[in-house]
Amino acid sequence: MESAVLLQSDIPTDATSRKMMVDSLLKLYEDEELFDRRGTQYQHYGKLKHPQLTEQLRPYIQDSSKCDNVRDKAIDIAEVCEVSELQEELVTLARDSSQSIYLRASAAKALCSIGDAGTRLKLKHLASEQLPEDEDDLLKGYCLSALWAEHLTAQELFEAITPPKRFHFLGKYQIFLEIELISKLQSHDLLLALEWLENQGVRCFGHPFEELGDKIILKAWENFGVPGVVERLAKVALVQWREYQNLLTRDNDIVRNFQASLAQDSKKRQKLIEQTLLMVSESGEEPWFLFGSLRKGFLHPKDFFWLLEELERIQDLDMQKIWIQCICNTFNRQDAKEIVALVEAMKTNEALRQTFELEFAPVELNSDRARQMETYYLQSHHEVHLKVFNSLLEKGFGRIKRCNQV
Q1: Per-residue pLDDT tens for 337-362?
Q2: In 3-state terms, what secondary structure has residue 148?
Q3: Are 320 and 354 a contacting pair, CB within 8 Å?
Q4: Of 1, 28, 176, 278, which residue is the least packed, with the fewest Cβ within 10 Å?
Q5: 304 neighbors 331 (Cβ within 8 angstroms)
């Protein structure tokens, strides 16, 4: 065990001493007298580099009769010491289906660091094939990491992505999907990414690509000006909204940043609203599902005047009706400026006038309409008062309970 202890301190720099230390460590691993399950030795392997290290490690990487423990550590040493001369042996091991899947994944992991372009390309079929033995998707994750984005197109990447075999296992594949993929995704590949996301269907109730989907949407929002992104993002939004789901589904900083950006950047937000309204109108479907979703951070009260201005430009009657419903959802009946603007717009737009005429028409006292309005008023205010009373009552009981506990 002396070599393992010495490895964590300053060790001799001469090649002979380092070669002896590597021999000693490998023997301890081979005899299963030393394990490094927590990876505490890994960070010190760089101290072992010496001119003969390639020949010293090669037999352990190639010889399948040796135990997995020592072979795995030989791969780690090769990776940390950047022994690129062993990359051919590593890619052969990674592709050998007769070998342990964890050793194969370890070899692919090393190639992420020391493999050249030609060697990494030999991992391509492992990234796209379904490998039942890769139960934790470790090999798939490391192969994708080794290839993306220099040696794998976005088209090839999204064709290779499959739901994780173990949904709650946070391994290399999940880390790749949720961190590495997005960090290297270029703006010109966003249309393809959004199309892939649209094809995944509605994301809710533990969908395997919830976080990846949220990050793709946020990246698209940040690159909103790329031609075609608005249209693709609107399609993704409608997939969610048709099922009354939020566009971004997780409760984390990504969602909070997106919501803050929605509130601040009215031009982008209004452009997305406009595109979704257009698509719903062209599809001929009933638009009622849309308004509840738009109220969740997309359709703001301050959009009222913008909606009125846009309504003036719309000639299609069906499209006008959808916009008028948005106006209904943003109209503040206590705002004098909005009332004046709406009355003026009603003079030139018949559909708008028909929608709001009852709100502005005179009401005769003791008429049926007057009685209906009175009943509605009393009922709504009764409900409000009842809620306030119940709230105060609950607070009172809470105080009494706390006092009794004391």
Answers
A1: 999 999 999 999 999 999 998 888 77
A2: coil
A3: no
A4: 1
A5: yes
**Quick one: which of 226, 232, 237 has its CA closest to 186?**
226
Q: What angle do CA 160, 166, 168 make, to 5 degrees?
A: 115
Measured CA to CA, the distance from residue 277 to residue 307 in angstroms comes to: 12
First-last CA distance in the chain: 61
Cα–Cα distance list, 101 to 87, 204, 320 (Å):
18, 32, 60
Task: Show the tokens assigned to 254.
Answer: 């990504």
Q: CB neighbours of 17 closer than 8 A, spacing ≥ 6?
A: 11
Q: Which string of DSSP letters, residue by residue, matches 199-268?
A: HT----SS-TTHHHHHHHHHHHHHTTTSTTHHHHHHHHHHHHHTTT--SS---SHHHHHHHHHHHH-HHH
Q: How far is CA 144 from CA 141, 180, 191, 242, in A?
A: 5, 10, 21, 33
Closest CA to 190 of 215, 211, 173: 215
Q: What does the alpha-carbon distance between residue 226 and residue 394 come to, in Å, rounded to a whole number?
A: 53
Please give the single-letter amino acid code of residue 19.
Answer: K
- Which residues contact residue 185 at a Cβ distance below 8 angstroms, ignoring those fewer than 6 apart? 149, 154, 193, 216, 219
Average pLDDT estimate for 71-92: 97
DSSP type of residue 348: T
Length of the chain: 406
Q: Residue 87 to residues 120, 315, 366: CA-CA distances in angstroms?
A: 9, 66, 92
**Residue-wise pLDDT tens digits, 144-201:** 999 999 999 999 999 999 999 998 888 999 999 999 999 999 999 999 999 999 999 9
- Helical residues (DSSP H) of 304-362, grouped into ranges: 304-313, 317-330, 336-346, 350-360
Q: Rounded CA gap, 177 and 168, in Å?
A: 14
Q: Where are the domains of the chain?
A: 300-361, 367-406
Half-sphere exposure (CA, 13 Å, Cβ side) for 115?
29
Residue predicted with more confidence, 119 or 169: 119
- Rounded to whole angstroms, how far apart are CA atoms 289 and 238? 10
**Tokens standing for 96?**
């050998």
